[in-house]
């Protein structure tokens, strides 16, 4: 049985929700073996080059979403935007940026959750409504978006996308609040789940973080203007000063009058996403009051204390495990080396040769450095195991390159549940740790020994307490209610995307 923390009676849900059978067979999540964030947001208020600065900020946040990007800017209160499929550099060429004039802009990078991206889901979404225009971009996932969508549709609303953001937009448009920021706050008072979002009506930028604070959101300053960003690394790229992180439950309004802070929501215990520290955020960022680099090194150090082993070399699965491997190496005294080199120029699409190449999907991203591996007892560090298929291929590559022993150490606890708050995870049944013991996973991946970091080791590395975090993918304690049909709706939404656009995934096994 799952545990739930401090939900009001109205928020209570059925424990059976994660086992609801879906007509489509319960497929969920992209067909690869990593977790993915679903978005990053960036905005600038009060700078003549707002769109160009937003473009640069999105560049720094590219790791949070690689399949779609958009910028909406405002000139004299009039919104103009451009969105497209692909990386930021693909979507925004010089002539496009030149068309985005104004001193206010919000931008978004998106990770599409299934199959290919479709343009109508790329954000910021921009609409005209009775009181003018607005645009909105959102990082996170709402657990009651499906119910709200049903209610809105019954009331005559027409949706053009399958994003949660459009639900928020509909709620804002229906608000009777005369002031845009108050309408946004009122709309957000009706949603449950994770959001760090930016909205604009062309005159103000409203930034909001949900009451539990799952996802990070920064406020920076640039000259007389203001900057909002999912991570601090995006403030650095434009030399914006770090002001502070927006607190859980805060709505921050940037306008000609300066910054206004509202706290319109009922207080909730904060529930930071632990996976932001483990994998999602860039190591050069500070989020949730902590250096991601320092936390990841402590994850590795704690792993070395919890699961020591005699070996010649510590090596990461690059790049997300580099810091944890450094921490393990430093704590254990075992030398660090890069046994794999990552190709940073691989996009999502490549042409596979007709002739089968063994482990092609892994090879195109990671190539082994044989001289570093041959004849060595290796401690391989990875940040997580999702389905285990990629790990198995990486480990078989190590064996082929002459590693004499492979000891697999994972800088997170076993992932046993899907995330409902904006990290794309496979259905529970496809998570290897949900059905296999550590020893069974050891055998499946083909290693000499396997150990995961404990939840206590994870918490210790952050310097916070367990109550500060969402750990639902590890411990099944979802911090919000989740409707019984949530997983089913998620799947159907993805199928809707597929059926209306590109049928690129047929439920076959992942390419690697
Ligand atoms: S379930 Fe896991 S990935 Fe999702 S918000 Fe909680 S800790 Fe993060």
What this model shows, in words?
The chain has 512 residues and is an alpha+beta fold. It folds into 2 domains: 18-271, Glutamine Phosphoribosylpyrophosphate, subunit 1, domain 1 (4-Layer Sandwich), CATH 3.60.20; 291-343 and 360-478, Rossmann fold (3-Layer(aba) Sandwich). Helices cover 29% and strands 23% of the residues. It has 18 helices and 25 strands. The strands form 7 sheets. The protein has a 7-stranded antiparallel beta sheet. Residues 214, 273-275, 419, 421, 423, 470-473 line the site of iron/sulfur cluster.
CATH superfamily of the largest domain: Aminohydrolase, N-terminal nucleophile (Ntn) domain
As for the CATH topology of the largest domain, it is Glutamine Phosphoribosylpyrophosphate, subunit 1, domain 1
Largest sheet: 7 strands, antiparallel
Question: How much helicity do the residues have?
Answer: 25-40%
How many β-strand runs? 25
Structural class from helices and strands?
alpha+beta
**Tally of individual helices:** 18
Mean pLDDT: 87
Kindly provide the radius of gyration, computed on alpha-carbon positions and rounded to a whole number of angstroms: 23 Å
In this entry the ligands are: iron/sulfur cluster
CATH C-level class of the largest domain: Alpha Beta
The domain tally reads 2
User: Which CATH architecture of the largest domain is right?
Assistant: 4-Layer Sandwich
Keywords:
single chain, 512 residues, alpha+beta, Glutamine Phosphoribosylpyrophosphate, subunit 1, domain 1, Rossmann fold, binds iron/sulfur cluster
